[in-house]
Amino acid sequence: MAFIKEESEDVKIEETFSVKHEETEEQTDLMALKEESQELNEMEEKDQYDKQDDLIIDEKSFSCSQTENTLRKRANGHDLTCQQCGKSFNRKGHLKVHMRIHTGEKPHTCQQCGISFTQEVVLNRHVRIHTGERPFTCQQCGRSFTEKGHLKVHMRVHTGEKPYTCQQCGKSFSQKVILNRHVRIHTLEKSFTCKLCGIDFIKEESLKSHMRSHTGEKPYTCKLCGNSFIQKGSLKSHMRIHTGEKPFTCKLCENSFNRKASLKSHMRIHTGEQPFTCPQCGKSFTHKPTFNNHMRIHTGEKPFSCKLCGKGFVRKASLKNHVRTHTGEQPFTCPQCGRGFTYKTTFNAHMRIHTGEQPYTCPKCGRSFRQKTTFNVHMRVHTGEKPFSCQQCGKSFAEKGNLKKHMRIHTGEKPFTCDQCGKSFARKVNLDSHMKIHIQLLSV
Fold it and tell me: In terms of pTM, does the model score above 0.85?
């Protein structure tokens, strides 16, 4: 299925914060309105079990007839209508909460990060970001979620429910955001499609820019370092590396960024937002690159190929690491002993030799390890797991190295040769024992 990509993420990303004061106020009101609508709906669900004389009303409407307004009054005769926007409510508490949109009041503050909210229930939901609490659990696969709505969306993975249907072609979707993206295909007068990969674009300029990802053309070059870029906006962002300019600042923690997209991604640390949801398994992600990498697990796509050996990789970083096996590059050097390493993970593990750090501790026996791989192997002592099996005789081993040694029984390989007499052995330990014979003979 072809997806519409309106603009490149580097230059046309949706703005979270507006520079203009008027746009900021408008966006704040819209966010508050959405927040209010969600919480009032929850309050209404609770209210329906209480004994009351109130009538259930449609709070999504901002205007109504005089008769409907009359019905929305409480039994005691008080008018529960907002004097600023005309919206009516069936409870005084609902009106009080609604008024905070106009007053800007946010009386409920998070004690951990200082973010304030108009309603206590929204604060309680936000606090789960810090506590890690996930009270809503899927009974089918055990996945847990911080919000009830996220669980509801996830359940469609199991039920196959697709409640959002396109009125134009009848195609159904599990999420509203996917439907909205799909609808653009019908609403746009023109759709520009890439003939190489099938992605659709709203503007012809966007398609031209996209084509450079296939052709490799990079027409925008930095005059300071010579790096070239596909898009002009990418060059503009790159120039801030040289100037040190970071014009996008987080209002919550004062971290600054040289790209607006980086600020937007950073804000999700505070909000806990995970806007990218896998339609296959329901797993959610904070950042789109992580989501894209995850999707390749389902598709089997490996878009990054080594030009030297042809091996494919899911992630660009994995390809970069792999290429070092051909070039011999060791960019990570130990400042203590000068030893070089190909991979950062290997370098980090080596540094623990000097620091003595052993961060991986066995919960069964308390033994600690410098490396995670060693820790994982040790855990098999307790679990009894033997994941490496011989295809010829079926014997299993806890370590890959032991299986490799065992296979020499079947292949007859003897890679360890005595320098004194030329005798060969399948295992190094046997060679070491044999060498002792020569040492004893020499000492006589």
Answer: no
